[in-house]
Amino acid sequence: MDDEKIPETPSASDGGRHSPRAADRILDTARRLFYLEGIRAIGVDEIVRQAGVTKPSLYRSFASKDDLAASYLKVYDQEFWKRFDASVAAHPGDPHRQILAFLSGVGERAVMEGYRGCGMTNAAVEYPEPNHPARAVGEANKRELRRRLREMASGMGTDDPDTLGDGLLLLIEGAYISGQLFGPGGPAASVARNADLLIEASVEPSSPSR
To answer: Are residues 52 and 82 both part of a single domain?
Structure first.
């Protein structure tokens, strides 16, 4: 997740009416703090302080902190699929190159200073409750990613697309975690190369995708 700037506080009062910009500042601030520090570690008092708004403003926009956390992850989910879909669009009809393009980006981000992994993976660890709204967003993302990876693996011509797709998913999740553990110079930088080796070992040389 890229560092985000918090929009400036409006110079004029809205006369007591709720300002959409207040909601934007709250969400932008929560996104930054939740990603860097963890959702449970950040309270609403810190969010409203850094956003420059009042606590009533927060609760007019978000029913609870759980609702705010789910909103943060919904934005995260949208940004994730933008990156994924851009990699797919860059190599039409070639799932092998599509996934390698996506993983090259993952590998680059995962060895940057301040990298905190995948916000949705982190949220799943923080919230083991199956019905928690934040976890639900993350689970839906991961299930859809698994489905797409298996579908892409099928397009590569492997005899066992489910196993290859799951292997790619495990590599991705491993990059998210190892990026936090090792930082710059860590093994996450080679996630695309390792995925390539896995694909090469799983797909027959005579396959149409080769």
So the answer is: no
